[in-house]
Amino acid sequence: MKRILAPLVVALLLLAAGMATWTLGQAEERVARAKTLLSTLDYETLVAADTISGDAVADDNGDGPSLAYATRLPGYGAELTSQTSGARATAEYWLGRYDQIALERDAGGALIERDPRLLLLAANAAYRASGLETADRETALDLLQAIVGNYADVLKSSPDNDALMDAAYNYELAARTRSALERARGATLPPKPADQHPSSIHGQVGGPPKGGDPNQFKVVVPKRSDERSNDPEGGQGGNRTRKG
Q1: Which value, in Å, is the radius of gyration of the alpha carbons in the chain?
Q2: How would DSSP label each residue in 140-184?
Q3: Would you give the DSSP letter of residue 98?
Q4: CA angle centred on 167, ends 166 and 170, rounded to 5°
Q5: Which of 42, 85, 133, 243 has the fewest CB atoms nearer than 10 Å to its CB?
Q6: Residue 106: CB partners within 8 Å, gap ≥ 6?
Q7: How crowded is residue 36: how many other Cβ atoms within 10 Å of its Cβ?
Q8: What are phi and psi of 68, to 5 degrees?
Q9: Exposed, middle or buried, 1 (CB in 10 Å: 0-12/13-18/19+)?
Q10: pLDDT surpassing 70 at residue 56
């Protein structure tokens, strides 16, 4: 009996190790696939659950069994899940689907998510979906207060992360905008100029400067060494007159 039991235990241990290794391999492959689609701007494919998961069955977040099992591995699985969720949320953001970037909260209303990058993405999505430009004064003040709170959550999430610099800038901008609107009694947010190009998620569309003639170009060509020798006075300024 002992001769059979010992090899059986070893075989079970090897089987468990093999399954854990296979699960991690599948999860890493899906993370790499998600990053590839994100780098190539293939957002539509990235947000499709059946393509991202690579599994026959996926949950509500598009995470298939292999990634769900990987989360149970201490220390390593949670990071893989975070990377996949971050890539999917980034794709949703650039597609303008801001309502899809919703963060879980506990019964007391506190955020469960602690990833600064995902928190910043959700805060930016909430700002773009707020409709501040068409809101009245009181509604705009409430929206700005909520936006300030979202960026404050990002700043509290981690003391050392690249996302904190952007969050700090956006936090100060939203706070100053709200303070200025609050001081201006009976005012609303300034409307956009009539001649301003419509904005997109990439910012304002560029264009030629006002009053400029695109057909006229001023080209400055540096002089050759022999030309500078023949014109030694070139570049010398006149006598300065002292004032006062």
Answers
A1: 29
A2: HHHHHHHHHHHHHHHHHH-SS-THHHHHHHHHHHHHHHHHHHHHS
A3: G
A4: 85
A5: 243
A6: 112
A7: 13
A8: -65, -40
A9: exposed
A10: no
Least Cα distance to 34 among 81, 69, 96 occurs for 81
For the question of whether the overall pTM of this predicted structure is more than 0.70, the answer is no
AA letter at 151: Y
Query: To the nearest whole percent, how much of the chain has pLDDT over 70?
Result: 69
Token look-up 């500078």 returns 228
As a whole number of angstroms, the distance between CA 142 and CA 121 comes to 20
Residue 192 or 18, more confident: 18
| Tokens read off for 136 | 């009245």
- Tokens 């794709």 belong to which residue? 91
- 116-128 helix and 77-94 helix, angle to the nearest 10 degrees: 20
Can you tell me whether residue 133 is helix, strand or coil?
helix
